[in-house]
Design brief:
- The chain is of the alpha/beta class.
- The chain is built from eight helices and six strands, in the order E-H-H-H-H-E-H-E-H-E-H-E-E-H.
- Helix 7 (170-179) links the parallel strand 4 (163-167) and strand 5.
- It starts with 6 loop residues before the first strand and ends in an 8-residue tail after the last helix.
Length: 222
């Protein structure tokens, strides 16, 4: 039997809960109000991105007189309202979290969403599943920078190379890979390319403790 994972680090939106589409809706509605229709070229600046990044993008493409900070506040309000009204776990998410909890495998929530949104989702999923939770405000840089995953591993007292990350967007996958994690990728909105250290799945229903254990890198010896 392979060793248990040292830790599993989960993205939130689109990975554990079906909120990526709510984020896209909130962004598309704000953009439309500013006279811009989101197109495919906008998606890399929206999906898996922090609020501030997407707000900066909308500020550039709409040339609005509103400051980027004001757009970020509008986005956060709109997204929070949608999440508060509807949090739907992704298929297999709760079963996987429960299995890891039962096996006492450390877990972290590593999100690019604001703390306000993270706490809303945790109110539905339950805080007890996670040893560590990180929101956009908890690191100076967010995905695709490796900082969030590096910070999560550090808070767990682990090297990122012995952690498995679970993600749904190319932006999140890039962050986890750059941090040194192995990655389970379950695309939610846009495709994710095959690459070394990425295990592609159609659903978290295909993920279990045995699979994550098989991806585990042995803990370094001293």
């Amino acid at each position: 039997m392979p060793a248990l994972p040292a830790a599993v680090l989960f993205d939130m939106d689109g990975t554990l809960v079906d909120t990526e589409r709510l984020w896209l809706q909130a962004t598309a509605e704000l953009a439309a109000g500013l006279g811009h229709t989101l197109i495919e070229e906008d998606l890399p600046e929206v999906l898996g991105r922090a609020v501030d990044h997407t707000a900066d993008h909308l500020h550039r493409v709409t040339r609005t007189g509103l400051a980027a900070a004001a757009l970020a506040e509008l986005l956060t309000d709109a997204f929070s309202s949608k999440v508060a009204a509807e949090v739907v776990p992704r298929p297999g998410a709760l079963a996987l979290l429960a299995e890891l909890h039962e096996a006492a495998v450390p877990t972290a929530l590593v999100s690019a969403s604001p703390r306000r949104v993270v706490d809303l989702v945790l109110g539905h999923l339950g805080h007890g599943f996670f040893h560590v939770t990180l929101a956009a405000e908890d690191t100076e840089r967010t995905k695709p920078d490796p900082a969030p995953y590096l910070a999560a591993a550090a808070r767990l007292g682990l090297d990122p190379s012995v952690c498995v990350a679970v993600e749904d967007t190319p932006t999140g996958v890039a962050s986890a890979l750059a941090a040194g994690c192995s990655v389970v990728a379950v695309p939610s909105t846009v495709p994710i390319a095959e690459a070394d250290r990425i295990t592609l799945l159609d659903s978290l229903e295909q993920a279990d403790l045995a699979l994550l254990s098989a991806l585990t890198v042995p803990m370094p010896t001293t």
